[in-house]
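Cast an eye over this sequence plus tokens and walk me through the fold:

***
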Amino acid sequence: MPVKIGSIPLPDFPLLLAPMEDVSDPPFRFVCKQNGADLMYSEFISSEGLIRDAIKSRQKLDFSEFERPFGIQMFGGDEEALSLSAKIIDAVQPDLVDINFGCPVKKVVCKGAGAAVLKDVDLMVRLTEAVVRSTALPVTVKTRLGWDEQSKNIEEVAERLQDVGIKALTIHGRTRSQLYKGEADWQLIGAVKNNPRITIPVFGNGDIDSPEKAVVYKERYGVDGLMIGRSAIGYPWVFREIKHYHQTGSLLSPPTIEERIGVCLTHLQKSVEWKGPVLGILEMRRHYANYLKGLPHIKDYRLQLVQAKTQEEVTSVLLEIKEKYLQLNPVQSRPNVLNHVSDCSFTDKPTCFQNSAGFTTVQ
């Protein structure tokens, strides 16, 4: 049965790409959309940075029409800042606005934002209501089960946020104190979805690392769809594999070496187009290990890739890898990247930026 977020139509059992800091940029989103992601989000944006006109925050508003339906996610702990940010986001006309009440990273939590808001549900409601009143776009929320094991308040949170007007809720199956350790607990996600008071779509998130698990969790907990984060890093085929298994009950073969190199080259091209020839090459370096994960004796090639300084050099190495492994015919398998990155990590990176045509940009 199709799912709707406000007036936004989505297919039956939609798959959402998680907003991941320093990962979910337009080049990465492009290859995920090509491989079946139904709804995607920006990297999460500081509301304080957005209203201060911070360059990095404004850059994160960029998206292309190809990416729709598309949501912009923001975080913050101040009603006025979130309200003003919602109005700024309105100007670039995404399809929805998402509020992050789930990021466990210390840098965010210490500012009273992200998962810190789980300690004060009244504040969370006020912040959410301020955003709902400030935009005509559908407002959604991503959060966690609670602050810690003793304060799992997601059932109360879900009801109260629905009451102030959110149109969908994504729940990560851990508390803030867990960070990304241990296993995600989907029992409470299922309890929220099966609460007769809850009428908005509920999406589950956490540890979805195979098509089989995706379908089992859908059937067991009744969620409307899934948000995929770390499993898509270096493996955007996860979306098409889950869709195929859900529709047919059979598993797709893993991508061939030609497909892996082909998508990596597309990702590289989009990175250079969006960020320029210097930053585009530098920021692709974090992705090569995941695209090539599982290939035997790949270490020397990985080293060449991170040392290459031009798109031509990187392309040459990738094509050499393709030719070599076509001859070796290695067994293809799905890489496990769940421990690679959090959904809202912070990394140091250059602040220079070069944009290109085809993206919606706030000047």
